[in-house]
Design brief:
By secondary structure, this protein is mainly β. It contains 1 helix and 10 strands.
Amino acid sequence: MTTYQYSFEIGSTSTTTNLEALTTPVNPPICNFTEWTRIYDKLDASVGADGYPACTWHFPLLTQAMVTQLRTFCSGKSANVYIKTRRSDGTFVKYSAVMIWPDNQLQRRVQMGRYLDLEIQFRKLVAA
């Protein structure tokens, strides 16, 4: 049995694959998870929040092959996918999500086909 460093997974269907086990393995991301989409001040001075959970996967370093592998899940600006990601409490949960490809991909490219600090957003997370 293969042991992976982290439990981040992705798939076009509810059958997901660990990022480290993809045809071209992808480095695990740093995850920023939020429980809601919108935060707002209420008239009584408290704070309200609503909307779906969301997260961002931040990749400090990716090769061109890794970016190409991730693009298989999102060939356009966005795509419906399934992911397993880390929540704020440290647990990993599987969600259906809308994957948003970054506008600044080319600006993140540095020499020798490497990308620095690429961030992929996942919106409308629904537990699967």
